Amino acid sequence: MKHADFVHLHVHTQYSLLDGMIRLDELFKKAKEYAMPAIAITDHGNMFGAIDFYQQAYKNGIKPIIGCELYVAPRSRFDKTTSSIGEATRHLVVLVKNMQGYKNLMKLTTAAHIEGFYYRPRVDKELLKECSEGLIASSACLHGEIASLIVRGNMEEAKKAARTYQEIFGEDNFIWKS
């Protein structure tokens, strides 16, 4: 059977608490049905399902891509002064390229829970800079920093944010067009 022409790189599973719905066995059943060569897990703010996902992917002959949709604090992860959850976080999808990336993603999610928790487990750009090696980032969804700036009509600030993420992750690990 011919492989699918695309790979899902933004998937929330049962481990994406209060947000994801698909169970891993159902996910891999569908992925096999559509001959998907690979699939990512990008649960919100955690890596609780990473090992189960990895094992099931290999059992089903599908390349696993480990990732997470991180919550990024608008300023510092230590700042807990915003008035609402919408002001307290922006989304950022991060995917693992190699073992160093896996270790860095574990550091990020751990620090998000221990140091940055405010409404949700949050990282900040300082921590992203420290732990960016081996990671690829994507601007995420409409709750991402870049998309939310574009929706508000602030294209110059959106471009500035995109350039910042490109500086953090490297030119080949955060791609955008101006």
Descriptive account of the structure:
The protein has 178 residues and is α/β, with parallel strands linked by helices. The chain contains seven helices and five strands; from the N terminus they run αβαβαβαβαβαα. It has helices at residues 24-33, 50-59, 85-88, 99-114, 125-130, 145-151, 155-169; strands spanning 38-41, 63-72, 90-96, 122-123, 135-138. Strands 1, 2, 3, 4 and 5 form a five-stranded mixed sheet that branches. Strand 1 (38-41), helix 2 (50-59) and strand 2 (63-72) form a beta-alpha-beta unit. The longest helix is centred in the middle third of the chain and has 16 residues, at 99-114.
Summarize this entry quickly.
This protein has helices spanning 24-33, 50-59, 85-88, 99-114, 125-130, 145-151, 155-169; strands at residues 38-41, 63-72, 90-96, 122-123, 135-138. The chain is an alpha/beta fold.
SSE layout:
Layout: H1 24-33, E1 38-41, H2 50-59, E2 63-72, H3 85-88, E3 90-96, H4 99-114, E4 122-123, H5 125-130, E5 135-138, H6 145-151, H7 155-169
Parallel strand pairs: 1-2, 2-4
Antiparallel strand pairs: 2-3, 3-5
List unreliable stretches of 5+ residues: none
Largest sheet: 5 strands, mixed
From the structure provided, what is the oligomeric state, counting identical versus distinct chains? single chain
Average predicted confidence as pLDDT: 92
Helix content: 25-40%
Residue fraction in strands: 15-25%
N-to-C SSE string, H for helix and E for strand: HEHEHEHEHEHH
Total DSSP E strands: 5
Looking at the structure, what is the overall shape?
globular
Structure classification? alpha/beta
Please compute the radius of gyration using only Cα atoms. 16 Å
Question: For the terminal residues, how far apart are their CA atoms?
Answer: 39 Å
Tally the helices.
7
